[in-house]
Amino acid sequence: MGEVFAGRYELIDPIASGGMGTVWRVRDRVDGQVKAAKMLNQSDAAMLLRFVREQSLRIDHTHIVTPQSWAAVDDRVLFTMPLVAGGSVSQLLRKYGALPPRWIGRLVDQTLQALEAVHAAGIVHRDVKPGNLLVEPTGRGVPHLRLTDFGIAVPTDEARLTHIAMVIGTPGYMPPEQQLGADPDASADIYALGRVILEMLTATKPPRDPAAVDIAGLRTGDPARDAVVDLIEATSSDDPAARPSATELRAHPSLRRLLELPPDPADPIVITEVFPPLPSGTGGSGDTLPRATAPHPPPTTGPASAPTMPPPPPPPRRTQEETVLPSPAAPIPAGVLAPVLLLVVGLLGLAVSGWLLLG
């Protein structure tokens, strides 16, 4: 059995890492479910605030990965979310190369549904890219996409956590104005999605610097492929005001044509679970885990002929945990976030308020 974090979350194995932390596969000892859990691996106040902000952005939508609960132990903080076991669009591209237009249409439409909900909540994601578009293991059936990683998402009416000159986002997917430090706007997510569509069509990552796309060079005369190119053209304007909203793009005639394409019997794409079987002893089939009311498993003893002394108790650890969720799309009240902020910021000895005053 791996480490049990905060007496509740058994850490199974790391499944991803990034600037905001490491994502683990964990087993929740309260409900027995295997989940994903992001754990903070930085020790500065601005990173902590982004981490807490991500945990607080809860949008209940079928195409969004929504945080579920959080816990803190000493100087470590994690929050859990549903485990999406089919991998990401980035992994699909590595495995299959350029995706068929029918697949692109469905993935784009589902991403737009997620962005509709995000933008309606007054939030800009700021990091739409293939690695943040997860898919459920649906086999040869219709894909089910879920937008994840709100680590640098920002409500448009809240204070920013970066210096004015600091660029936040992934090169290649950011529009020109984002690279110049413009205020977050929903149109930036639409531009990023256009770059994702370009990558799904060509299996080539977009250039790191903003560059005009040779739209004419992408067209081949094939109606389905050209419909995908139409979507790239609609999202690629350097002028944010010229880009359609998520709702407008969902109604684009070219996207509607892509959604009407029939299944292709020669389609090779199969979405299966990408994670290995659970290790033995992690509460899998046939195992029973103690409930949260017993944060530490009862000590075991050897055979009667060879008794063993119980191990010494572990040193006390300060923990905080909250699993009661607010209503969808509502930030967690300050009274809930205060304990974890005071805990970690006190240990770091950093002035959080100074960061909140930065432009």
What features would you highlight for this structure?
single chain, 359 residues, alpha+beta, Phosphorylase Kinase, domain 1, seven-stranded antiparallel β-sheet, two-stranded antiparallel sheet, 31% helix, disordered C terminus
Summarize the structure.
This protein is an alpha+beta fold. 31% of the residues lie in helices and 15% in strands.
Write the layout of secondary structure elements.
Layout: E1 4-5, E2 9-18, E3 21-28, E4 34-40, H1 45-56, E5 69-73, E6 76-82, H2 89-96, H3 101-120, E7 123-124, E8 133-135, E9 145-147, E10 154-155, H4 176-179, H5 186-202, H6 215-218, H7 223-235, H8 246-250, H9 253-259, E11 319-322, H10 334-348, H11 352-356
Antiparallel strand pairs: 1-2, 2-3, 3-4, 4-6, 5-6, 5-11, 7-10, 8-9
Helix pairs in contact: 1-10, 3-5, 3-7, 3-9, 5-7, 7-9
Distinct helical segment count: 11
- Secondary-structure element order, as H and E? EEEEHEEHHEEEEHHHHHHEHH
The portion of residues forming beta strands comes to 5-15%
Q: How large is the radius of gyration?
A: 23 Å
CATH C-level class of the largest domain: Mainly Alpha
CATH topology of the largest domain: Transferase(Phosphotransferase), domain 1
Structural class: alpha+beta
The general outline is globular
Q: CATH superfamily name of the largest domain?
A: Transferase(Phosphotransferase) domain 1
Question: Gap between N and C termini, in Å?
Answer: 45 Å
- Tell me the number of structural domains: 2
Structure overview:
- The strands form 3 sheets. A 7-stranded antiparallel beta sheet has the order 1-2-3-4-6-5-11. The chain has a two-stranded antiparallel ribbon with strand order 7-10. A two-stranded antiparallel sheet has the order 8-9.
- The model is unreliable at 284-359 (pLDDT under 50).
- The chain contains 11 helices and 11 strands.
- By secondary structure, it is of the alpha+beta class.
- Strand 2 (9-18) and strand 3 form a beta hairpin.
- It is 31% helix and 15% strand.
- It has 2 domains: 4-83 and 319-356, 2-Layer Sandwich (Phosphorylase Kinase, domain 1); 89-259, Transferase(Phosphotransferase) domain 1 (Transferase(Phosphotransferase), domain 1).
- The longest helix is centred in the N-terminal third of the chain and has 20 residues, at 101-120.
- 35% of the residues are buried.
- The protein is globular and about 60 Å long.
